[in-house]
Amino acid sequence: MTLTREDMFERNLALARKRLLQMIENPREMDFIPTGARVINLPKDDPELLGANLRLVMELAKDGDERPIVLIPEVGE
Fold first, then answer.
1. For helices 47-62 and 5-25, angle between their N-to-C axes, nearest 10 degrees
2. Taking the CB of residue 21, how many other CB atoms lie within 10 A of it?
3. Per-residue pLDDT at 70
4. Can you give the C-alpha Rg of the chain in angstroms?
5. Residue 9 and which of 20, 27, 45, 49 are 20 to 30 A apart at CA?
6. What is the domain extent for residue 56?
7. Low-confidence spans in the chain with pLDDT less than 50
8. How many folded domains does the chain comprise?
9. Which residues, in sequence order, are bridge partners of residue 73?
10. DSSP readout, 14-64?
């Protein structure tokens, strides 16, 4: 099954929410992310979204934008 853009958005939004809560608790953990970077979360328990996000990384790497791409694996629980 291929994720629709809407499904991908919803699942990534849930990951971003978790990441923001972690950042609130431990803001220094994200100091390594450069200003303006494109951040891609990599889920640990959703292989379909993981594959879609890795394909997105490849597309972003080819688009000529020189901003860094930061991959953040999901950890915890």
1. 90
2. 10
3. 95
4. 13
5. 27
6. 5-73
7. none
8. 1
9. 42
10. HHHHHHHHHHHH-GGGGTTSPTTPEEEEE-SS-HHHHHHHHHHHHHHHHS-
Tokens representing 11 are 């699942």
Amino acid, single-letter form, for residue 74: E
8 A C-beta contact, residue 56 and residue 43: no
Dihedral over alpha carbons 60, 65, 67, 68 (to 10 degrees): 40
Q: Using one digit for the tens of pLDDT, what is the confidence trace for 2-21? A: 789 999 999 999 999 998 89
pTM for this predicted structure: 0.84
C-alpha closest to that of 74 among 50, 28, 41 = 41
**Structure-token match 């020189």, residue found:** 66
